[in-house]
Write a structure and sequence with these properties.
Number of helices: 9
Strand content: under 5%
Number of strands: 0
Structural class: mainly alpha
Radius of gyration: 19 Å
Order of helices and strands: HHHHHHHHH
Largest sheet: none
Helix content: over 70%
Distance between the termini: 57 Å
Amino acid sequence: MEAKRRRLAERPEIILEAAAAVLRKSGARGLTIDAVAVEAGLSKGGVLHHYASKDALISALVARKLSDLREEIAACEAEIPPGPSQLSQAMVAHVRGHYCDDDESSRALLLASIESPEALADYRAFVADQLGRLERIEGACPGEGAVLFFAILGLFMGRALGFHALGDDALQPMLDALERMAKRPER
């Protein structure tokens, strides 16, 4: 009985892993409840029991992605001495460490999210939270944190969506400039 409960408790994560695999293999258009069920080795009803719709599944994938992103930024923050520029520097450090991570999955998830109001709301909440944190920094010039954040977001989104494929020779000077902006004394 305990093993069955454990399998049932693990099922939502198994379904999310299957959905991520479907996104990687088939893209946003290939993400269907049926495809996820096949990938997870479950019935369609088994998937729908945990995620009542494709939108709910996409929203859960986005929530997981944003949770991971928050944790990664927090880990970068922990490595930087406390101060007004800590968050800005952490964001730049995160870009340095994760710039080329899994573009295909990110692209597919972003494209799937466009048609999902719940997922878009999650992204908007993340952006608002990060902007709010940057704007609340004591001593920061108004708008400076937002400019830095959107520059970083533009690098990630542009790469994930295939708008550019900046090589290390082009990326490093831009990251160096972002880092200088983040460390400015008046921040």
